Amino acid sequence: TNHMKHTTSPYSFWNPPAQKLRRITGTVTDQAGNVSRVLSEDEFVLDKTAPVVEISGVADRSANNDTVAPVIRFTDANFDPNGTTLTMTGANNGAVSYDGDYADVENGRVFSYADFARVQEVDDIYTLTAGITDLAGNTADSSIMFSANRFGSVYDLDGLKNMLGKYLRNEEDVVFTEVNVDSLNKSETKLKITKN
Q: Which three-class secondary structure string do you get for 68-127?
């Protein structure tokens, strides 16, 4: 009678370095004392380190009246070129796609936006979000908000969206945001409301 028994031998990596190349090799000895040939599996990498995404070129919560050219750097020792995401949304323009180029760097890549077009339609309050996933599935993301203000104040009217074109049974506060590269003087700020 042929008796075969399948067993597994668990192996734990106790406190290994954050990234280490591993290879599993071994032999098997049966109950009769016969030793198998050396079994060798392909190498694998144990990666517990989160990747890095950095945004520069514009500061978070900044108002910009000159060069507006964000730079996003994605890096990881086990960088996946298909594992990066980049989105930019304007408060008034919605999702936008402005000119820029990728460049490869050691263990990653950099996306550099060209200076935003110097036209009034581009003045807006932007949210820029970048994400990265490395080959091991570790993730990181970063997000900033900034404005392009080359033609004066930029207004975020999102607070009005809940009431425009609707019939309201109760009064609601009218809320909007003004952003300008110069400090705003409240005594000189005027709001004109027209009825009907």
A: CCCEEEEECCCCCCCCEEEEEEECCCEEECCCEEEEEECCEEEEEECCCCCCHHHCEEEE
